[in-house]
From TrEMBL, chain A:
Pfam families: adh_short. The lineage of its organism: Bacteria, Pseudomonadati, Pseudomonadota, Alphaproteobacteria, Rhodobacterales. GO terms for cellular component: membrane. The keyword Membrane does not apply. InterPro entries: NAD(P)-bd_dom_sf, SDR_fam. It comes from Ruegeria halocynthiae. This is Short-chain dehydrogenase.
From TrEMBL, chain B:
Keywords: FAD, Flavoprotein, Oxidoreductase. Belongs to the oxygen-dependent FAD-linked oxidoreductase family. InterPro entries: FAD-bd_PCMH (IPR016166), FAD-bd_PCMH-like_sf (IPR036318), FAD-bd_PCMH_sub2 (IPR016169), FAD-linked_Oxidoreductases_BP (IPR050432), Oxid_FAD_bind_N (IPR006094). Signal peptide: none annotated. This is FAD/FMN-containing dehydrogenase. The keyword Ligase does not apply. The lineage of its organism: Bacteria, Pseudomonadati, Pseudomonadota, Alphaproteobacteria, Rhodobacterales. Residues 9-175 form the FAD-binding PCMH-type domain. Coiled coil: none annotated.
Amino acid sequence: MSNGPVLILGARSDIAQATAHEYAEHGYPIQLAARNSETLQIIKHDFETRYQIQVTLHDFDVLDVERHAEFVDGLPELPEIVVCAVGALGNQEEDEKDILGAAQIIRSNFEGPASILAVLANRFEKRASGSLVGISSVAGERGRATNYIYGSAKAGFSAYLSGLRNRLSKKGVHVVTVLPGFVDTKMTESLDLPEKLTAQPSEVASAIVRATKKRKNIVYSKPVWAFIMTVIRSIPEFLFKKMRI
Amino acid sequence: MKLSGWGKYPVVDCQLSKPRSEEELSQSVLKSNAIARGNGRAYGDSALNRTNTIDMRKFSHMLSFDPKSGQLVAESGVLLSDIIKAFLPRGWFPIVTPGTRFVSLGGMVAADVHGKNHHVDGSFGNCIDWLDVMSADGNVMRCSRTENAELFNWTIGGMGLTGVILRVALRLRSVNTGWIRQTTHVAQNLDTAIDMFEDSLDATYSVAWIDCLSSGDALGRSLVMLGEHATLSELPNKCRANLFPSVSKPKLAVPFSLPRFCLNTYSVRAFNALYYWNGKRGDATSYVNWNSYFYPLDSIMNWNRIYGRKGFAQFQCVLPLGNARTSLNDMLEEIAASGRGSFLAVLKRFGKQESRFSFPMEGYTLALDFPISNGSVSLIQKLGQMTAKGGGRIYLAKDSIMNAQSLRATDAARVAEFETMRQTSGAAERFASMQSERLKL
C-alpha cells in the first residue's frame, strides 16, 4: 500500500521542514506550500536525492483566504495528511501600539490557518479519511504580558482545532493539535532559551509523525511541557496578573 | 558560546553565526576574519575563531545523484552519516571514510581525511570531482582539477584556510552488501605488524591496533585487521537476511564527563589486555557489518567524555616508509616508558600521495589519545620532535598542541608555499582559526 501525499503549509519554517523530512523518509510524497515556492527548489532536490520520492512545490499565501479553495483545487492530488506550520511571532511591544500589525499577527496565526484547514476539512470529511495537523503553541494556553497578541491568536487556533476534532472524529478524519514549547528555530534565534526545555525541530517532527500514526490528539515537543502548562493554567488569576513570566 | 573540538580541549568562548543562504554566508565572511565549522569533529582548535566562527550545518542539502557515475553533489554541511543512510540501501558507500561517520563533507575536504584503504584508494580528495568555494571577496568559485586548479588543490587539506567550502561533488563506491569480511592477525611486536602490512598491500582495508604499554620484545604488539567488502555469494545466511543493515540508535552513551581516575594506567592496561586476547581467540575470518567495522566508537555516544572534563589531545603523525620502523620503535619506547598509554593507538600503512597541504605521505601513520595534563603535553611535544627527526608530519585535524616552530620543523617547504598562497589570494586576512593563529599560518 503506497502512502498518499503529505501537504506542508508554511514549508519554509524549520519545524515544517523537519516534519517534511520525517514523512519523506517514511516514503510519503511531499507537497510543499509557501509564498515564493520556487525558492524551495533546493528542498525539493534534497528530498528527491535522499529519499527518491516525489516532491511538488505550490505557491500559497495564508492571508489570501479568498483563494484557498482554488489552492486546494490546484494540488495534483488531495493529500492524505496536512501539516499547517504557518505562523508569525511578531513583536509584542510594537504590535501593542500598531493595531494593523497586531491584526496581521492574529490573521497569520488564526484566521488564515483556520480558513485553509476549513477547506481541507470539508474535502477530507467527504472522503472520510485523512489527518489534519495544526501547529499551535503553548503561548495559547494562557495570555501573558510579553506575548499575548501571538498567544491569543494561537489560543483561537487551538480551540478551532479542538472543535474540528470534535466534529470530524466520527467521520474518519483525525485532527492533531501540536503545542511546541521552546524550539530551536529561526523564529527563536534571537531569544535566549533554556537548553533543557528547548526541543530541536527534529524532535517536534518525530512527535508529529508519531501522532498521525497513532492517532494522538494533543502533542507537546517535550513531555515536560505538558506538566509546565498544567501548572501555569492552574495559577489563580489574582496571582497570575501580578507575575512576570 | 563555548565551543571546542572533539577533544574538548581547548574550550573557547566564540561568536557563532548560522547562515542559511549564500548572502548570509558572505555577510559573515566579510565581517571579520572567520573560520567555517562543520560538525566539530576535528579534535583541537581547527574550527574555532573567537570573533567569527561560522556554523555550516544549515547548508545540509543533497543536490543531485547520478547513479551511472556514482557522483553525489551535496552542500558542505551534509554529514557522512546522512549519505550512508540515504545511499547504502541503494548499494553505494563512501570511497574514503574516516573513523567516524559524524563528520561534515566540508570538514572531510578541509582535513582531506583518510581511511583504512589509503594505501589503495588514497585520501578523500581523490574522490572529489569539484568544489564550490566562497573565497576572500565573498564570491563563490567552482574549482576542480581542470578549473581553478590552484584553489582546488590548496582547499583539499587546507583546513578551511583558503575559503569556505560550500558544495562538494564526490563519487561513491558501488557495493554488493553492507558487510565486511574481516580477518584479524596477531602480531607479537611492531616489526611483525609492519611485515604484515607490507604483505597485505592488496587488501582493501588494513589497520592495526597497538598495545602501547607493552615493552621489550613485545613492544608494539598489535592486532592487524584486514577487510574486504563482502559479495553477496560469500555471505552466510544470517547476513543475507539483512543485506544492508541499518544503524540502530546508539545503545551506549557516556552521560557526563567521567572523573579522571577512571582512566588511570590500570584501566588502560585492562582494556588493552582484553582487546588483545579477544583478538587472539578470534584469529580468523568473520563478517562484520559496515557500522561496527568502520565506526566502532560511533556506537558509544559522546565517548570523548571518557577522558574527563579537562579533555584530551590526540597525536597523529606519519613517517616516511624508509624511517618508519626505527622512528615508530623509538616513539613506542617513549610512550611505554611514560606509562601514559592511550586508550586507542592505531597504526596504518599509507600509500603514495602528492598533495599541496594534505597530511598523508607514503609510510606509516600512528594515532594516540592522551588525557590533557602537563606530562602528556610535553610527551606530545617530544613525539612531535621525533616525527620531525624522522622526516614525518603531524595531522592538523588532530592537533591542539604544536607551535609554529614545530610545524615548520616537520613541513617547512609546504608551509612556506601555503603562507604565500594565503597572502596572494587574500585568504590570510579573511580566514583564520585559533589553530592557524597558533601555527602562524
